[in-house]
Amino acid sequence: MRRQDFYFDLPEELIAQQPTEERTQSRLLVMEADGGVSDQHFPDLLSYLNENDCLIFNDTKVIPARLFGQKSTGGQVELLIERVLDNERVLSHVRSSRAPKAGAVLHIADAFEAEVLGREGALFELKLSQKESDLSALELIEAHGHMPLPPYIEREDELEDKERYQTVYSAKPGAVAAPTAGLHFDEALLERIRAKGVSTGFVTLHVGAGTFKPVQVDDIAEHVMHSEVIEVLPETVALIEETKRKGGRVIAVGTTSVRCLESAARFSGDGPLQPYQGETDIFITPGYEFQVVDVLLTNFHLPESTLIMLVSALAGYKRTMQAYAHAVAQGYRFFSYGDAMLVHPAQKTAAKAE
């Protein structure tokens, strides 16, 4: 398929710049199992869940990965941490008038230093340190960084974003972008879901800035997917096995959860699902046969993005593009702070035809 096949016209005013007042106040577009679409509100998700289903969440935690400072020459510099490597070293995007060279020292937030150790493609390896302090790189970032709002949110981060650009169940620091489908849940809704007999489990994918990287080739088969760190624990595998045994459905909350589960299945080969910890660069496009995920809860994604391609793989290409056209016509709010959609898969015979 071609990149342009996944283009849709999105009015700028539909790109959400602020979160809703309450997490659960967003709308929910449902791609129904019978092929239709319906307009709901997010708490209506409960009526689409069955006893013995399980929801799989991504428990990554967004770090305040955007940092501002100066080079020794006085020039301005902006860092976007991509990955924390250990207690001292990080991989980071660096924005400045000229790229710093190895050995250069950057002065960050008038608080600590970042020494350039080298460069790996577009990323710089930096050593973070603070004089007379034994704070780790992550602790320095947490103390002095800004929340890394996506490029389509055209404002500076605010105090509210520290809470709202974070899921209520976030646990493992490392992401530089939120797994946004999870932003709609609050503790009260999670309690109601569990009370209905729906199980909840967790995977981890530390979302990188590459999630916003556009597909630049015309033939999507030629796109090189970015790599991210994931973890699928034994207890999550056991939950999925139990869910399937009882006839329940595995409902992935967010495309990152999909990528975790389907990656684990890929690395498990022809055998049963196995735990996995490591890197994944899985690229899910129409024609992909899902091994684990039955239903997807997700936000609306950028035109021509790898994520709308993933949704199309589950729902069918035509259904997906029709649903997006419906969302635009009905004034749904798009992207990270926008509304959600519940995606039931296309019937297999229909999906192949599409």
UniProtKB/TrEMBL annotation:
Gene3D superfamilies in UniProt: QueA-like (2.40.10.240)
A GO term from the CC aspect: cytoplasm
Keyword Transcription found: no
Keyword Chaperone tagged: no
Subcellular location: Cytoplasm
Enzyme Commission code(s) on record: 2.4.99.17
SUPFAM superfamilies associated with the record: QueA-like (SSF111337)
Biochemical pathway: tRNA modification; tRNA-queuosine biosynthesis
Catalytic activity: 7-aminomethyl-7-carbaguanosine(34) in tRNA + S-adenosyl-L-methionine = epoxyqueuosine(34) in tRNA + adenine + L-methionine + 2 H(+)
Swiss-Prot/TrEMBL keywords: Cytoplasm, Glycosyltransferase, Isomerase, Queuosine biosynthesis, S-adenosyl-L-methionine, Transferase
Entry superkingdom: Bacteria
PANTHER family listed in its UniProt record: S-ADENOSYLMETHIONINE:TRNA RIBOSYLTRANSFERASE-ISOMERASE (PTHR30307:SF0)
Family: Belongs to the QueA family.
Stated role: Transfers and isomerizes the ribose moiety from AdoMet to the 7-aminomethyl group of 7-deazaguanine (preQ1-tRNA) to give epoxyqueuosine (oQ-tRNA).
Complex formation: Monomer.
Listed name of the protein: S-adenosylmethionine:tRNA ribosyltransferase-isomerase
Protein species of origin: Hydrogenovibrio thermophilus
Gene name of the record: queA
